[in-house]
Amino acid sequence: xxxxxxxxxxxxxxxxxxxxxxxxxxxxxxxxxxxxxxxxxxxxxxxxxxxxxxxxxxxxxxxxxxxxxxxxxxxxxxxxxxxxxxxxxxxxxxxxxxxxxxxxxxxxxxxxxxxxxxxxxxxxxxxxxxxxxxxxxxxxxxxxxxxxxxxxxxxxxxxxxxxxxxxxxxxxxxxxxxxxxxxxxxxxxxxxxxxxxxxxxxxxxxxxxxxxxxxxxxxxxxxxxxxxxxxxxxxxxxxxxxxxxxxxxxxxxxxxxxxxxxxxxxxxxxxxxxxxxxxxxxxxxxxx
Length: 288
Hints:
The chain is of the alpha+beta class.
């Protein structure tokens, strides 16, 4: 499902290993304590605000799976820090824009009429991976109110991070990414690739203010009633994200290392947004 053909390559879209293969490929079990040691060795700091994109299968076999990963991340940043993850729910986007897969034209109105309204408590994530899906339900976690592009956060800054997210600019300066930029948060790609780096969408909007607008819509609760709410969003071009990430690595803006069996990348959100915007602005406009 996508905006005008867009399909973010999420951690969950990676090739999934069976648990049997994970055990066979792992030299030892990964535990909360071992993951915390690896996270701190990589450079994660107690008390910081950290936006995490996780591909759990890359970590190797983890005792208790996603729960252990969440507990390890919370343990690394401590109660003084704030953990943030994407909580996107593209299943609530306008079916007229779905491309992966598209649905028959005659289905569209039926789907629009029957999609459940977004509820930050119960709407599941889609293609975000098991860790992000568990994290949005974690006791005390808060979730922003965008029906398709929300973020979940837990910690002292969580309320401010999730307080607002304009329908028509979910990845802009007035939403969670803008707050994370201003608060000098960092990004951890925990086994995930640069194609999962949501912050690059903020860079896109700064580099290309003339991005085309895509008509969108989602089911939402308005004044106590379910309604189909129409809005528009900027088109996105994530195909170039991996190469931009590699350029940032070559510039020395990314610290890479291992957590469990995964190659991970740690970076300053404002620094990589600024640098990525410069790279994008120097490239041909992707929409003609």
